[in-house]
């Protein structure tokens, strides 16, 4: 039966011949020649090993085997038509299944809430949100889109910039009050600077206007999670360099203060939040409305912004929701 599976078009032609009771009309309906239609029916008979049609100059009649072939063929044609309708419907309206991935901290703090709002707006879409701090291969692992914190998106994929990614050096008011004021980046060298990563030493870089500076910092804690680093800073044991999306609420509440508010800090994740996806993915309505939704939420005003006088943001307005996706 493998040959039959390879030549289902022959079965479709048989159905058309039976419905129209004519090889000539079937040829006209399928855009083929009469000889081609005859050849396909003969090939189907050879594949099944049975005669399917009695054919005279005026009539076409089914054999017993032909009746079975027609009934099964008709069912397959109906299923194929239903499949086409379902796919067409999928292309016309935002519906279907989305697989989304992002980092653990960003997902917990921001994307999970946005996905919940998205689902409320689009009830015919379902989402699986995967949070992971490892590098996820969007194409190989079957994700529709990755929300990635980076300055350098993968060249082979499409990247839509959603928002600027800013960083601050921060500590608790009590920690800062008990020590001499940190006036310049060089002053950080005398503090317990907790490091994001695997080593207890790091180089922190800053800009102020056109001037750049860097300082080698050390600390008693290294951790590869923004959430864990934030918790350590909140305990008042030292200073941390964190993305503003992780600590904005703490800054607004006064639980943390920005150190060096006149400087812009560089962070290990890069300067932008991007939606990363394969070019073919954007053609579906479910993906278009998801990307537009994120652009709307990020572009309508920062979901996070360091609440500290003199803080210098890396922000630049992301493209509007109507902008065309651009490869980077």
TrEMBL record:
Pfam families cross-referenced by the UniProt entry: HTH_1, LysR_substrate
Keyword Cell cycle found: no
The keyword Transcription regulation is assigned to this record: yes
InterPro entries membership: LysR-type_TF_proteobact-type, LysR_HTH_N, LysR_subst-bd, WH-like_DNA-bd_sf, WH_DNA-bd_sf
Domain HTH lysR-type: 6-63
Keywords linked to the UniProt accession: DNA-binding, Transcription, Transcription regulation
UniProt signal peptide: none
Membership in a protein family: Belongs to the LysR transcriptional regulatory family.
Name of the protein described by the UniProt record: LysR family transcriptional regulator
Protein source organism: Pseudoduganella chitinolytica
